[in-house]
Amino acid sequence: MAAMETTLDVYARPYDPTHPVLCFDECAKELRAHVRPPRQERAGRKVDPEYERHGMAPIHLWIEPHTGRMGARVTTQRTRYEFADAVQAMVAAYPEAPTITVVLDNLNTHSYAALYDAFPPVEAARLRRRVHLVKTPKHGSWLNIAELGISVLSRGVLKHQRFVSHAALETQVTAWITAHNADPHPINWTFDVDTARARMPRVYPIPKNASDK
After folding, report:
1. CB of 73 within 8 A of CB of 89?
2. Inter-CA distances, 12 with 7, 169, 180, 190, Å
3. Structural domain for 125, as ranges
4. What single string gives the DSSP state of each residue in 160-199?
5. C-alpha Rg value of the chain to the nearest Å
């Protein structure tokens, strides 16, 4: 439970704009083209259920729980190089912050090594020194607040809309993020270490010497 409590301790930190906490996650949107143009009728826009597949568009998203501020990148792949680019973008979004804590899951692409694969050593080291990666427990990605951000983005942009290209999706996502950040709302995360210990006693290991006390 060490990874869970470490994550919850990060969330419990008081807000500090010079050392922000971000949550990062990834999702994907299937690109689809209309076979027949939608029709505008009195009852609303009618879309033919038939469509053409045009591949997948990965989306890398981060959210700052204390402020609700978000950022996202639409990419063509989901490799360590795209993760490194996302880290670079997060650092650029907080130029005044000496360090940034990033909570994320345990994908093998989510590592400091990805920075050295993607960038020259000087740039990779600069990013590594600026970013502190905190990973949620294995099978515990529900602790990642970025999943809430993805849900909000899905309701606002992704759900019930068809995008034929990465460019079209990126335009919509960027516009939505800009509008969202004009009036963001902090996330009220109430699940803390004390709550975890009270509600989840069975998942905590029994200390080796507990029977001796």
Report:
1. yes
2. 9, 35, 24, 9
3. 2-34+50-180
4. T---SSHHHHHHHHHHHHHHHHHS---------HHHHHHH
5. 20
Tell me the C-alpha to C-alpha distance, in Å, between residue 209 and each of 71, 200, 204, 205: 47, 21, 14, 12
Number of C-beta neighbours around residue 9 at 10 A: 12
**For residue 150, what is the enclosing H or E element?**
helix 146-153
pLDDT in tens, 64-103: 999 999 999 999 888 999 999 999 999 999 999 999 999 9
pLDDT for 12 equals 95
Separation between Cα atoms, residue 138 and residue 101, nearest integer Å: 19
Q: How far apart are the C-alpha atoms of 167 and 7, rounded to whole Å?
A: 35
Q: What pTM, to 2 d.p., does this model score?
A: 0.86
Helix then strand count (H, E) for the chain reads 7, 7
- Cα(191)–Cα(209) distance, integer angstroms: 29
* Sequence-distant (≥ 6) Cβ neighbours of residue 166 within 8 angstroms: 31, 57, 74, 75, 76
- Look at the block and give the residue holding tokens 């993607």: 118
Would you call 48 exposed, middle or buried from its count of C-beta atoms within 10 A (0-12, 13-18, 19+)?
A: exposed
Q: Could you tell me if residue 66 is inside a domain?
A: yes
Give the number of domains in the chain: 1
Query: Concatenated DSSP letters for 106-143?
Result: --TT-SHHHHHHHS-HHHHHHHHHHEEEEEPPTT-GGG
14 Rama class: left (phi>0) / alpha (psi -120 to 50) / beta: beta
- The CATH number that applies at residue 68 is 3.30.420.10
